[in-house]
Amino acid sequence: MPFVFTIQILSLPKDSLIVKHPKKNPLVLRMLVLMFVMVCGVYICSVCLKQIGGHPTVRLLSYPVAERACDVADIELSEKPYVHYPKPETFNREECACNPVRYFAILSTQRSGSGWFETLLNSHMNISSNGEIFSVKVRRSNISTIVETLDKIYNLDWFTSASKNECTAAVGLKWMLNQGLMQHHEEIAEYLNSKGVSAIFLFRRNLLRRMISILANSFDQNAKLLNGTHKSHVHSTHDAKILASYKPVVNTSLLIPNLRQVEDLVNKSMEYFKSTRHIILYYEDIINNRTKLVDVQNFLRVPLRDLSSRQVKIHKGSLASQVENWGDIEKALEGTPYQSYLHEDYKL
Questions:
Q1: For the domain with range 79-342, which CATH number is right: 2.40.128, 1.25.10, 3.40.50, 3.30.460?
Q2: CB 314 within 8 A of CB 307
Q3: How far apart are CA 138 and CA 149, in angstroms?
Q4: What strand order describes the sheet that includes 197-203?
Q5: Average pLDDT of the residues in 163-171
Q6: DSSP letters along 277-346, please?
Q7: pLDDT by residue (tens digit) across 49-69?
Q8: Each residue's pLDDT tens digit, 100-149
Q9: Residue 212 has pLDDT above 70, yes or no
Q10: How far, in Å, CA of 218 to CA of 223, rounded?
Q11: 278-282 and 170-176 beta bridge pairing
């Protein structure tokens, strides 16, 4: 009889049959992924470098960006040589980059009202007249330094208290005839014409008045009547009266030769620069007729404005009251082409 083995299966709790695996550390997984990415990256870079090494180096080509051209369609053909769009090196004209700029030069002689006239121009919000730039000798030492200075002025890179910078519509300077202008007149005329610079001639009709003003101003350079300071122009009637109190003595033996010399200088300047676009003004005409200032603004093609100046005239009234030896002057000029200078030509 065979043996029968009986296997008794013990009943165990249900949960005891589940085998639990140990938890994996997420940090280890992340490190493995990171190492895999790095290995792939190194491999890809090595392949790329081999490919680049087998070919000539490719250079990136840089193309200049074309600047926006300013619209000049509405400018008359005859005016285009006098319209400019400067590109200053010292600042950016920004929104005014396409605002046209006119170049000008005030050509004059000392004590002809040019300082007063320039303050009138500078009271206009769009005009910058930078003063007597060539009074400094080194700037007019030769034609090269003159041109270099002019280029800087007309490129709007010359800064003075008169500079309007970005939105300047007319820029220039005051230039006396004895400040290298006549000495280098041929080269300067060529420059003015080639650059489209307009000339404003400003002179005095009565050269005797100018001479008296020069003598008085020369005296004050040494005497310094205003609290030990010399002033060629004043802004108060009090200071004007102090300067006008000096009455010079005119050397009548040199009177006519001096008047003739200045007259010749003025005539030569207008002859030398007659090919330049220009306007001729006289101090007395501006005093008597302020509409002359409208002519100037139209000449410069700027919007019309009321122009003003803080300067106060120093010498007023008749010439006889401004000199010590009026009788001698009358005798010297009587019967000469300069006799008309003896008469009062305007009243203030």
A1: 3.40.50
A2: no
A3: 10
A4: 127-129, 170-176, 102-108, 197-203, 278-282
A5: 89
A6: -EEEEEHHHHHH-TTHHHHHHHHHT----------B-SS-S-GGGT-S-HHHHHHHHTTSTTGGGGS---
A7: 555 554 444 443 444 444 567
A8: 999 999 999 999 999 999 999 999 999 999 999 999 999 999 999 999 99
A9: yes
A10: 9
A11: unpaired
What pLDDT digit, counting tens, does each position of 321-348 carry?
999 999 999 999 999 999 999 986 655 5
Q: What is the pLDDT of residues 233-249, one digit of tens each?
A: 999 999 999 999 999 99
C-alpha closest to that of 81 among 60, 53, 62, 100: 100
Q: Which two tokens stand for residue 123?
A: 């009271």
Domain chopping of the chain, boundaries: 79-342
Task: Kindly state the average pLDDT of the residues 204-220.
Answer: 96
Residue with tokens 């803080």: 310
Task: Report the alpha-carbon distance of residue 282 to residue 203 in Å, rounded.
Answer: 5
- How many Å is the Cα radius of gyration of the chain? 42
Cα 307–chain centre separation: 19
C-alpha pair distances (Å), 113 with each of 34, 83, 105, 145: 85, 28, 15, 27
Are the beta carbons of 232 and 115 closer than 8 angstroms? yes
Token pair 């009271």 is found at 123
Contact residues for 120 (Cβ-Cβ < 8 A; gap 6+): 293, 307, 308, 309
